[in-house]
Amino acid sequence: YDKLNAAYAYGGADLLIETLEKNFLVKIDGYAKVGFDSFEWIVDRLGGVEITLTAEEAEYLRTHNYISKKEYRNVVAGTQLMNGNQVLGYCRVRMVPNINGSHSDFGRTERQRIVLSKIFNKYKESNIFSMLSILNDCLPRVTTNVSKTDIQTLLETVVEERILSMDTMRLPISGGYSSTKVAGADVLAVYLDKNVDALHEFVFGPEE
Questions:
Q1: How far apart are CA 51 and CA 80, in angstroms?
Q2: In the 8-state DSSP scheme, what is residue 26?
Q3: How does DSSP classify residue 176?
Q4: Which has the closest alpha carbon to 173: 188, 152, 158?
Q5: Rounded distance between C-alpha atoms, residue 36 and residue 92, angstroms
Q6: Which candidate, 10, 69, 22, 61, places its Cα nearest to that of 44?
Q7: Could you report the per-residue pLDDT of 66-110, keeping only the tens digit for each?
Q8: pLDDT for residue 208
Q9: 49 pairs with which residues across the strands?
Q10: Whether the Cβ atoms of residue 199 and residue 171 lie closer than 8 Å to each other
Q11: pTM for the full model?
């Protein structure tokens, strides 16, 4: 009985997958893990990401160490091309609201979804040769249980079927949790039934 992310600390990807499958009644087909250094390298390999910062976000990133390299703390309010070190800092912030007004951990995870969506939109109309070149460069920096062959097949499907949108969701859903304490730490107690129903509808569509 602990915070959800503790499962990874205790037992790696295997225990985290088992925990998610047991609690949310889903089958996880595969996972990918990227460390901070690899994240920065991959973002730089992709040519950076265009991010829109609020004035409060920009001020916070300029005056705190989330952007670890001081020379890159020169971000400003508005839309700008950010490098890997800057984007990592942006993804880690949770003390100020993001551009959509989301606070705390919700704001942080939404920033991460924003970055994933920006990367997807940047490359969604690329040709398969460009995508395979990126795959060959980036995959050695990713820990995953999905084979390179399967990833190549997925990339080909995305390109050939012109899949041009990516859907994301947040768990727990609004109204699907309450605040509590575990071992003295503030956590969210999830109402599993509500969240399982929402997740299944997101993944599989509404029930007939």
A1: 6
A2: -
A3: S
A4: 188
A5: 10
A6: 69
A7: 999 999 999 999 999 999 999 999 999 999 999 999 989 999 999
A8: 65
A9: 82
A10: yes
A11: 0.92
For 203, residues 6+ apart whose C-beta sits below 8 A from its C-beta are: 26
Task: With beta carbons less than 8 A apart as the criterion, state whether 168 and 117 touch.
Answer: yes
CA distance readout (Å), 207 to 73, 175, 195, 200 = 48, 21, 15, 9
Whether the CB-CB separation of 155 and 131 falls below 8 Å is answered with yes
93 in Cβ contact with 57 (< 8 Å)? yes
- Distance in angstroms (rounded) separating the CA atoms of residues 62 and 178: 33
Amino acid in position 178: S
Concatenated DSSP letters for 46-101? TT-EEEEE-HHHHHHHHHSTTS-SGGG----SEEEEE-HHHHHHHHH--SS--TT-
